[in-house]
Amino acid sequence: xxxxxxxxxxxxxxxxxxxxxxxxxxxxxxxxxxxxxxxxxxxxxxxxxxxxxxxxxxxxxxxxxxxxxxxxxxxxxxxxxxxxxxxxxxxxxxxxxxxxxxxxxxxxxxxxxxxxxxxxxxxxxxxxxxxxxxxxxxxxxxxxxxxxxxxxxxxxxxxxxxxxxxxxxxxxxxxxxxxxxxxxxxxxxxxxxxxxxxxxxxxxxxxxxxxxxxxxxxxxxxxxxxxxxxxxxxxxxxxxxxxxxxxxxxxxxxxxxxxxxxxxxxxxxxxxxxxxxxxxxxxxxxxxxxxxxxxxxxxxxxxxxxxxxxxxxxxxxxxxxxxxxxxxxxxxxxxxxxxxx
Length: 341
Prior knowledge:
Layout: E1 5-11, E2 16-21, E3 26-30, E4 33-36, H1 39-45, E5 50-51, H2 52-57, E6 62-65, E7 68-69, E8 72-73, H3 77-92, E9 101-108, H4 114-124, E10 130-135, H5 136-144, E11 150-155, E12 160-165, E13 175-178, H6 182-196, E14 200-201, H7 204-214, E15 227-232, E16 235-240, H8 242-250, H9 253-265, H10 272-277, E17 279-282, H11 291-298, E18 307-309, H12 313-327, H13 333-340
Parallel strand pairs: 1-9, 9-10, 11-17, 17-18
Antiparallel strand pairs: 1-2, 2-3, 4-5, 4-6, 7-8, 11-12, 12-13, 14-15, 15-16
Helix pairs in contact: 3-4, 5-12, 6-7, 6-8, 9-11
């Protein structure tokens, strides 16, 4: 066994989680756990627990669990057990047994309660020697080295987290969290299409694929209509859902704008201009075409506003956690963990 320390950064997401390590591993795993439905399924699969894509591929033989809802662990013993299994699995992808010491920084939602963060900390306790829980948007800012009066808008599947960053660990009053994220857009796509086409038969997975392929706002309209295939009362159809996609994508904008205005107005007025010029749009939802430009337009009444859309948004939170793990002395971790709780 090596005496070296393995540093790990984890972004624990409602839909997808990411792990990066100081040894160069980068892993994306869908945040889903599956257990065999019966003895026959157990004998067929030869495993008691399956994770991510492997669980989805065998889902007909499994009971599936998505233990994170709106970015936090569901409040029941079963899901808390499975999130512990999941954290053990994702940390295990870094081969921690090859190292003498393993330390991890795990990103949690901006407004996760003390109980939520404690549950995540307890879940990781069996896999690492030391652990810090931090705000996901703070991890993004740390990864980008944008700690000097910036405001991060982190759009995930279950939540959108918005956080003021000014060179230290954010306090609860610096952060807000809404359920208007990617899952909300998926639900709105289904609702809009079914309102437009009575009898339309659409699943959440179909809506998510359309969002990932076609999402846009009025600030960046597509060159051609969005035509997709689905059934209407069992009949195969190819229909135009352009307006449905736009309305669904824009349904998250008003809550973002309202909360950005609140966080700026409640901050020290000497730094309002800095926050207005350093809005960071991150998370999977930042890939919606024209979203940054539309947010800028909706915030124009505040003055000159600049929204910076990040590159490679999926890994930024985990990369920020890894960087923090490697740069912050462990004797400071206890204080930071308490502060971030």
